[in-house]
Each structure stands twice: as C-alpha cells, then as structure tokens.
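WARN no homologs supplied; continuing
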Amino acid sequence: MPGDVLWATLVFVLVGFVRPAWSTARVAAVALAVAFAVEASQAVHLPWLDAVRGTVLGRLVVGTSFYAPDLLAYAVGVMLGALVEIGLMPR
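OK structure emitted
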C-alpha cells in the first residue's frame, strides 16, 4: 500500500511537470483520474496488455490485478502531492 501512495504521488508530480500552468486542483483531478484508470485497466486481460504486464516495467506502471483498496491509496498519494505543492508555493 505505501508503494501505491508513492506511485500516485509520482503521477501527480508528472502531470504537474507536463502542465505547469494548471491549478493544483486540476493537476490533482487529472492525476487521480489517471491512477483510477490504470487500476480499472487491471481488471481487463487482453493478450497484448498481459504481455506488457509480463515485463518488470509493465508490472510497475500498469500493475497486474484490480484491488479496490488501492483506490484509497491513490487518493492519499495525490492528496499528499497537492499538500506538498501548496506548502511549497510562495505566499
């Protein structure tokens, strides 16, 4: 579960790097949508997707099986990223 929190925080950071002009709330919403979509994709088993999951990088990025509690971990990770960003921004 800590790895899922860290993964979602990474997604938040990556979205923020790609779209630096976006508000923190928008970055958080997109990051959470991406994290939830990746988790939902784990319920789908297509041959090409399972082949990607068969690699180390594929397992780390796409995961292997759907686990509903991960959704809470993703929300915590994105929230952590947003709180850090708000705390580091000049006032």
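The mean pLDDT is 91.
OK
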